[in-house]
Write a structure and sequence with these properties.
There is one protein chain. This protein is mainly β. 4% of the residues lie in helices and 25% in strands. The chain has a domain of 182 residues: Nucleic acid-binding proteins (OB fold (Dihydrolipoamide Acetyltransferase, E2P), Beta Barrel). The strands form five sheets. A seven-stranded antiparallel beta sheet has the order 9-16-10-13-14-15-17, with no helix packed on it. A hairpin with an 8-residue loop joins strand 5 and strand 6.
């Protein structure tokens, strides 16, 4: 989709650059495929702030996405492409031949009226899903499972994708957008194509209020605080180790804790 600029009738409009949504569905979501969404304000079940600078924002309903594509060998028609406030990508409402409807992530070049299908072996075209062992090497995929049947976890954000670069001993080798090369069980499902809305990264919100609509509160730098509030506080020049408010070092300090999956990583992401 193209980017949309605005006439500078206000200071915010002068800066604002948004994705053109004129071709998206104008109405509300399919009600049966939504559920209520409760805001946390960045607090956990103890009431402690675990993520700073969150709160407020417009009320949303969560769209239930079919990550696993469990309805095999049944063709579905794309009814419409919709905006989803809960993610950066667009979503597609599909209708199966038996009348059931579902939401899936909309890949690039998927249009209203197109046919999509998930199964053991399907055509290699955007929106179709199949197991990695049947996807040709070199194919661009998204919504990739990490465990068979669990549902897609890799490459779900706007414009992202993985590339199948090889297969060996029951595993498929994937090159991720970060440059990481990892292996995934060949029985895992993946959807053909790259995720929609690649221009999301070029958006400019234009004003602070639009961030507040998204539930993002102003971000305060630690260096402007007092020593009691942040490790950077009270500093005039030099003499500090950059860290988080709780003292965890930044600037290269490794925080990866799930070492159990290191065996699946062939090459770490680019530094």
């Amino acid at each position: 989709m193209a980017l949309k600029k605005y006439k500078p009738v206000t200071p915010a409009q002068r800066q604002r650059i948004m994705v053109d949504r004129s071709k998206l569905w104008k109405g509300g979501p399919e009600k049966n495929l939504t559920e209520g969404l409760k805001k946390t304000g960045g607090r956990n079940n103890q009431g402690d702030t675990t993520v700073r600078f969150r709160g407020g924002g417009h009320k949303r309903r969560y769209r239930i996405i079919d990550w696993a594509r469990t309805k095999w060998d049944m063709e579905a028609t794309v009814e419409r492409i919709e905006y989803d406030p809960n993610r950066t990508a667009h979503i597609a409402l599909i209708k199966y031949t038996d009348g059931e409807m579902a939401y899936i992530l909309a890949p690039q070049r998927l249009n209203v009226g197109d046919k999509v299908v998930a199964g053991e072996k399907t055509d290699v075209k955007p929106g179709n899903a199949m197991q990695l062992r049947n996807i040709p090497v070199g194919t661009i995929v998204h919504n990739v499972e990490m465990k068979p049947g669990k549902g897609g976890q890799l490459a779900r954000s706007a414009g992202t994708y993985c590339q199948v670069v090889g297969r060996d001993q029951g595993y498929a080798q994937l090159k991720l957008a970060s440059g990481e090369l990892r292996i995934v069980r060949a029985e895992c499902m993946a959807t053909i194509g790259a995720v929609s809305n690649p221009d999301h990264l070029n958006e400019v919100v234009g004003k602070a209020g639009r961030s507040r609509w998204k539930g993002r509160r102003p971000h305060q730098r630690g260096i402007v605080m007092n020593p009691v509030d942040h490790p950077h506080g009270g500093r005039t020049k030099g003499g500090t180790h950059w860290s988080s408010p709780t003292g965890v070092p930044a600037k290269g300090y490794k925080t990866r804790s799930n070492k159990a999956t290191d065996k699946y990583i062939i090459r770490r992401r680019k530094k």
